[in-house]
Structures are given as C-alpha cells and as structure tokens.
Specification:
It is a single chain. By secondary structure, the chain is an alpha+beta fold. It folds into three domains: 80-92 and 292-388, Beta Barrel (Elongation Factor Tu (Ef-tu), domain 3), CATH 2.40.30.170; 94-118 and 263-289, OB fold (Dihydrolipoamide Acetyltransferase, E2P) (Beta Barrel), CATH 2.40.50; 128-258, Helix Hairpins. It has six helices and 15 strands. It has helices spanning 2-13, 17-46, 54-78, 128-167, 169-191, 198-258; strands at 81-83, 87-90, 94-97, 102-107, 114-115, 120-124, 261-263, 268-271, 280-281, 286-292, 296-302, 314-319, 322-334, 360-367, 382-388. A six-stranded antiparallel beta barrel has the order 2-11-14-13-12-15. It has a four-stranded antiparallel β-sheet with strand order 3-10-8-5, with no helix packed on it. A four-stranded antiparallel β-sheet has the order 7-6-4-9, with no helix packed on it. A hairpin with a 2-residue loop joins strand 12 and strand 13 (322-334). Helix 5 packs antiparallel against helix 6. 15% of the residues are buried.
Length: 390
C-alpha cells in the first residue's frame, strides 16, 4: 500500500503545468462572464437613466415655467421704476464771512446746533466804524444848522425886498407927477408962450428928471433885494443837499457799524466754524457756515431713464446712513440739459473721434412731510432714489 501511494504522488507531481493554467484561465473566464451578467442584471433592476425618466422632464418644465413667470413678473415690476445710485443730498449752504476787519469779541458756541434767522453769531470789536458814524452824525447836525441859517437869510432877504418895494412906491408916484407937470407946461408953452414961462418949463423938466432918477434908484434897490432873496433860497437848497449827503454818510457808517454784529441770515445748523474769540478777521474771510433747513436730493439719472419721468411722480428714497428707513418724496424739477453741458470745459465733440456716452441729467427730488428732519441728514450724503414712472 505504501508503494502505491508513492506512485500516485509521483504521478501527480509529473503532471503538465500548462494543463493547470488552462484550467485556471477557463475558470476565471467563466467568472468574468458571470460578473457582467450580474452588472447587467443590476442595471435592469435600477431602471433607465435619470434624463430618460419622465419625472425629470416634468420637474425641469416646472422649474423653467417658474423662472419664466418670475422673470416676467420682475420685468413688469421693474419697468415701472427708474432708480440710480448717482444721487446725494443737496442744499444751498450759506457761508458766513466778515465784511469788515477787526478782532472778534464774541463767537456763539453753537457748533452743530440749530440757529434761527437773525440770531447773533459773532461780534467784531468796535473801533473806526463807530468813529465814522459819530463823525457822519455830526455832519448832519452841521447841515441842519446851515439850513436854519440859510432859511433865516431868506426871511431877511424877503423882508428887505418888501421894504424896498414899499420905499419905491413914493418915488415912482412923484416921478409920475413930475412927468405930468412937465408935459402940461410944455403943451401950454407950445399953445401960448405967454401962458407958461420958459423958466417954469425948464424947472418942470428938471424936477421930472430928478424924480425919475429917484424912482429908478428905488426900483434898483427892489431888484437887489429880490436877487438877495433868490440867493438866500439857493443857499437853503444847497444846505439841504449838504444835509442829504451827510445823512448818506450816516447811513453808510451805520451799515459798516452793523457789520460788527454778524447774524444768521437763514434758519439752519451751524457747521464748519473756523474762528474763535480773539481771532482777527478781514473782509471776505469765512467764519462759519450754515446748512439751511430746506434740503433736497439731486439725482443724476441717465438720459434714457427720463422718457416717462414727470414732475410730481412719487419717489422712494433710501439713504446709505439709514438703510432700514424708507423716506418718501416727489420729483420737483428736471434740469433742461445734461451735466456735462455746464462743465468748466465742455467737451468739443466736433473734433477728433466721437464716442457716444450716455449722459446724466440732474433731477431735483423734494422730501415729503417732516419726518426726515428727525434724522441727521446733510448735504453730500449718498442716496438711492427710486421714481415710479408708470
């Protein structure tokens, strides 16, 4: 038995290795075909690909419909509004400057505070303006005295004229009587030389000439008195003119004196104060500025956005400083002309190559109500206005 087992074992060791490999390859091939069949069986169990399934196209159609409807709704809503981020709060800032030179003796401590029109802001030390005012007032007093003196001269000249006229009445009458006597004697002498002696005629002629000379002298005195009266009246007019000139100097001095007290020209907030008590100022030097209570929004819309924009249309205003607050306003005016037309150096499109650029047109928007005054809104703040144009 042991010998038989050894022979069998030797027989097994003597087998061809190629036969073993062929057997093993055949087994692996059989196993590979079995794996593909399993994968094919799994695919058949999972069904067709996702893009071939009806549910995929149903969902895709629903999503596309939602997007189209949403886009149409957004477009129909957006076309009703025109908005821009090129906008800011604007106002006519009043810059207060000195109109005369001097040292400040008082400056109101109202930085970033509200002031009313006419409220005192600063005082310049009085000096030369007050002296000029006193001198001008003294000139008015002198002019008043000159007027009174001239009026007194007029009264005196008028009295002198009246007296001269009264004194001229008697010489005129005597001259007339003497002239009549001479004519009578001369007529009698021609008719009858014996009726009047030659000496009588000569005496009458001499008397007539003497009385005529006295009447002429009296009339010259009347004329002289009248000329003096006219001169006195001219002196009155000259004195009145001098008083008017003196009064004008007083008013001018008062204006200059009023420059010493600087008051608020409008209601608003004091900002940008640049001086203090003791500062020396000169004419034209800026002291501070006032932001008026009245403010608006200057929005630079594209020219293509103005087709349906009209005055009075409502505006929703968002200010960058208060993003959670919605302010309301309305279109007040639309400038007739793009901003570039008012630039310091307007573009010359007639020369060189022209490139069309959409221009911006300033639109003024006013706030509605007074709620916006509760917030610290000032010139220069960025704003995004949205105008409902449809």
């Amino acid at each position: 038995m042991a010998e038989e087992q050894d022979q069998d074992r030797n027989a097994d060791d003597g087998k061809d290795p190629g036969q073993d490999e062929s057997r093993s390859d055949g087994g692996n091939k059989h196993k590979g075909e079995g794996g593909k069949e399993e994968e094919r069986q799994e695919e058949e169990d999972d069904g067709p690909p996702l893009y071939k399934r009806p549910i995929f196209w149903i969902i895709a159609a629903i999503v596309a419909a939602i997007l189209i409807v949403g886009g149409l709704l957004y477009w129909s809503h957006a076309r009703k509004y025109a908005s821009t981020d090129d906008a800011f709060v604007d106002a006519h800032i009043v810059r207060i400057a000195a109109q005369t030179s001097g040292q400040l003796t008082r400056v109101v401590d109202r930085d970033n505070r509200h002031v009313n029109q006419g409220q005192l802001l600063a005082v310049i030390e009085p000096g030369q303006p007050e002296a000029q005012l006193a001198e001008a007032q003294a000139g008015v007093s002198q002019a008043d005295a000159a007027i009174q003196q001239a009026q007194a001269k007029v009264a005196s000249a008028l009295a002198t004229e009246r007296q001269a006229a009264a004194n001229a009445v008697a010489p005129a009458a005597q001259a007339l009587r003497a002239a009549d006597d001479y004519r009578r004697y001369a007529a009698l002498r021609k008719l009858d030389p014996a009726a009047a002696a030659a000496t009588q005629v000569e005496q009458a002629r001499t008397e007539s000439q003497a009385q005529a000379a006295q009447a002429d002298a009296a009339q010259r005195q009347v004329d002289q008195a009248h000329a003096d009266l006219l001169a006195a009246r001219k002196d009155v007019k000259a004195a009145i003119a001098q008083r008017a000139a003196a009064q004008a100097r007083v008013q001018q001095a008062q204006v200059v004196n009023n420059y010493l007290r600087i008051t608020a020209p409008v209601n608003g907030q004091v900002v940008n104060r640049q001086v203090d008590v003791g500062s020396y100022v000169s004419p034209g030097q800026q002291l501070l500025a006032i932001v008026p209570d009245e403010m608006w929004i200057t929005a630079n819309f594209k020219e293509t956005q103005l087709k349906h924009m009209r005055i009075g249309q409502p505006v929703e205003i968002k200010i960058d400083a208060y993003p959670a607050v919605k302010f309301h306003g309305h279109v007040d005016s639309i400038q007739h002309g793009a901003g570039q037309a008012f630039a310091l150096l307007p573009p010359q499109n007639a020369t060189g190559n022209y490139v069309k650029v959409v221009q911006r047109v300033p639109v003024r928007i006013l706030f509605d109500g007074s709620d916006w005054r509760k917030y610290a809104i000032g010139p220069g703040m960025s704003v995004v206005p949205t105008v409902k144009v449809r």
